[in-house]
């Protein structure tokens, strides 16, 4: 499970977004940036931009226990199918079942096109 929280100090321009996995461990932005640098300012969700791409990569790196090749092969599609549709201005929860279902959907779509 992945949980995204918006932390706002009262000034709308000063918003931080943190994401934790099901074990309560915060996803590491810097670790995902070493793989691909989309958004050095942090994670985001609710649209198809650089912050959501960074989040999709970080979630998949965590989900696949650091398997860069597998995460890199899926993260842009995962961003489009799972991250872009999350509510932009709200916290979110993605269950492990939702993550696995989205990965399976991407794999099936790719097999159909092959």
**Distance between the ends:** 31 Å
What value does the average pLDDT take?
93
Please state the overall shape, judged from the principal axes of the Cα atoms.
globular
Question: What count of helical segments does DSSP give?
Answer: 4
Helix content: 40-55%
Q: What oligomeric state do these chains adopt?
A: single chain
Question: How would you sum up this structure, described in words?
Answer:
- The structure is a single chain.
- The protein is α+β, with helices and mostly antiparallel strands and 114 residues long.
- It has one domain (2-113).
- It has four helices and three strands; from the N terminus they run ββαααβα.
- The protein has helices spanning 29-33, 50-63, 68-83, 96-113; strands spanning 2-8, 15-20, 92-94.
- Strands 2-1-3 form a three-stranded antiparallel sheet.
- Helix 2 (50-63) packs across helix 3 (68-83) and helix 3 packs across helix 4.
- The longest helix is centred in the C-terminal third of the chain and has 18 residues, at 96-113.
- The protein is globular and about 50 Å long.
Give me some keywords for this one:
114 residues, alpha+beta, three-stranded antiparallel β-sheet, 14% strand, globular
Topology:
Blueprint: E1 2-8, E2 15-20, H1 29-33, H2 50-63, H3 68-83, E3 92-94, H4 96-113
Antiparallel strand pairs: 1-2, 1-3
Helix pairs in contact: 2-3, 3-4
Question: Summary?
Answer:
The chain is α+β, with helices and mostly antiparallel strands.
């Amino acid at each position: 499970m992945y949980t995204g929280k918006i932390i706002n100090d009262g000034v709308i321009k000063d918003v931080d977004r943190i994401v934790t996995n099901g074990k309560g461990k915060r996803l590491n932005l810097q670790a995902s940036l070493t793989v691909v640098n989309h958004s050095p300012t942090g994670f985001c969700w609710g649209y198809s931009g650089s912050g959501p791409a960074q989040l999709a990569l970080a979630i998949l790196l965590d989900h696949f226990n650091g398997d860069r090749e597998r995460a890199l092969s899926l993260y842009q599609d995962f961003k489009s199918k799972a991250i872009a549709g999350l509510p932009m201005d709200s916290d979110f929860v993605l269950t492990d079942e939702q993550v696995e279902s989205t990965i399976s959907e991407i794999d099936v779509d790719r097999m159909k096109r092959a």
